[in-house]
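Example record for the data management plan.
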Amino acid sequence: RMKTILAAAILSLSAPVAYAADLSAEWSSIKAPDMPALQKVTPDVKTTALLVMDFMKTSCTEQARPRCVATIAPVKKLLADARAKGMTVVYAVTGNDPVMTNFLPELAAQAGEPIVAARADKFLGTDLDKILKDKGIKTVIPVGTASNGAVLYTATGAAFRNYDVLLPIDGMSGNNAWSEQIVAWQLVNGPGLADRVKLTKSDMISF
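Corresponding structural encoding:
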């Protein structure tokens, strides 16, 4: 009898877990994973670039994207600190026109800071990779909006091109907290990303 009970227990442990047929059946019961750890970082200013993306007047407003407005202050401080140390700052705008006309003036590029124009992935169809390599950049700090657009795809593109990525969560914004949450999780857990990306905050970055 003991052997029968033991065999049944082993079978129950080895039996496959029953899953729903598709995601739609599980959606409402899915629990968010624990937040990834935030890390204090001290990047090398000579080989690090701050990527400032898509802080456009039309989208970064209290009406359109209030979460973007909340990131202005920490990004402005990052910009000031980076420039004070002579760090490389590169800008990206959405669309096809690489100008600062529609960029938030308090975060706009200064003379000599390169600007590229693209949709979500700022490497796609631009000279961004060349700009960074020509300056000897090995690490990027992407900030901008939308989190699940420019931030996600440009950070992914950077990691896939062998750049290290330092992602300040208070420097990216989406339409809601969930769109920021999935980006933070994906960038530190995704295949080919986990060993390249560190999650941080603006006040945890020391230049």
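Summary line stored alongside the record: Helices lie at 2-14, 23-26, 66-69, 72-84, 128-134, 147-160, 177-189.
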